[in-house]
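Reproducibility note. Readers wishing to regenerate the assembly model reported in the main text can use the exact inputs given here. Chain order matters: entities are listed in the order in which they were concatenated for prediction.
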Amino acid sequence: MTPVIEVEQLVREFKSPSGGSMQAVAGVDLAVNEGEVYGFLGPNGAGKTTLVRMLVTLLRPSSGTARVAGFDIVNEPGSVRSAIGVTLQEAALDPLMTGFELLQLQATLHGLRKGAASAKADELLERVDLVRAKDARLGTYSGGMTRRLDLAMSLIHEPKVLFLDEPTTGLDPISRKVLWDEVRALNHEGTTVFLTTQYLEEADALADRVGIIADGKLVAEDTPENLKADIGAARLEVTINDPASHAKAREILGGHGRLLKPRSGVSFFLQLPPGDTQLAPYVIELDQAGVTVDRVDLVEPSLDDVFLLKTGHHLDADAADAAPTPVP
Amino acid sequence: MSALSPAYIRIVWAIAIRSIKRIMRRPQSLMPIFLVPTMFLVVTSGGAARAINLPGFPEVESFFQFAIAGAIVQSTMLGGLMAGINLSVDVDNGFFDRMIVAPVPRSALVLGRVLGSAAIALFQACLYLALGVVFGASIEGGIFGILLILVLAGICAASMGGLAVALALRAQAQWVQGVFPLVFVIIFMSSAFFPRELLTGPAETIAGYNPISYLAEGMREPIISGVSGSVELKAFAIGLGLTIFTTLIAVWALRVRLGGSR
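Running the prediction on these inputs yields the following structure tokens for the assembly.
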């Protein structure tokens, strides 16, 4: 596999409010292979966007090197820009222009003549299903439509590498699904995709490999399956509505493994022994002890568990609610 | 990509067209560049009507005829400032990042906006000349004079546009908007609304060093007395020099903003 993105010890420092300096990206090494979807996962402020801005030549690194599509981001920025497509956070588009006008402008910026630019704009509007809205101003577009147009603009020159910085943040589930399908289709056509996200399910659904960034450092990198496999066993969620039975249930379940802090609405959260995926023995044992189990679920390891393991905290507040924290 | 290549020119043109559309599609951005100078033209024409009787005042039909050039200068300078305000909006909402991440020569991004200001200035100048004719003012220089006025109006807007773009690239949006009152100060410290020959003391000195005086005089002469050549040529040379200077500052500001990246 040929790497199309190669990053070595990339650092970006900013002045901190206290007058010193802080590293938003603190020595990241990574390589993304041709044809891969690389998911870059981390919470807000972890350094994802700063890394992307350096890779797309919007920001000069403080130190370290990076090559994108074979070109150095500092010494050959023009060649990098010709080879990449970029959608930045929050779909930065002009609300006073129409979708067609923006695509045409983008095509002109990439060197296409008027006729070719118009033809390309029409082709991409068709691709992202915005033909009917082509002459409407962006101000009238929904969030999903804007994101699709943003994606179309980044495809105008058929880039080898596509950078998507949190492309689905703020979108409804249907719009998110549409965008995911388009990313998959692009990747299928051979485009390498570098995707930053704070959504676990997005990284899980789209990425061939995932890099987890926290405090400017890459703390883990592998396929989602391997990362989750590192966590090991599944967990058991048990809901018992009768508080009088909780002591007995705690005694029984605690005898089988480590009890973790359960999420809201769940009574017990049990770390199962490796390889154990059976619910029935636990339910039967509780039942025989006179404890009525109202609900029981087997929870497979998630990327948030990986994140928790590597960084000591959850990816975000929502995830914190959905995933366990070890009970001291 | 060289500055004279067809691709470069297409990019500059596309950015200029977008600048024009942005201003035309936001009526609120048209208000200050037309309403304020028009109000000022009406007020000064009424209030200073008798000033034309002062000894040494150029021979004119009315103060209104004399002040049309000042209104064009005021309107086109404010129009040029809109280039900076619109760029600030692009910078704030991230659209500017999308443009600079394309393989575009940096100077084209600046030139496009400056050219956009100049193009809008042609429309502004036409409007004030038409207003003048409707309310009885003669354009003594005829068609050739009108063409000269249009060129100088474009240069006036472009010079301000370059400065506003530079400011937008180096400062926050509120600073660019804060230049609005400064435009009025620059105009009042020029000969835009009063003949330089009748100014005295510091006002005369400042107006003499103020390049806007020469642009205003270059636009005024074709209106009030016809084309002499020397006044218009001086206005053209000073205005063009100013435009090149402010545009270079804007290109420099963009390079500094991008941290020296090409």
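We highlight two features of this model. Chain B has one domain: 6-257. Chain B touches chain A at residues 1, 7, 10-11, 14-15, 18, 21-22, 25-26, 90, 93-95, 97-104, 258-262 (CB under 8 Å).
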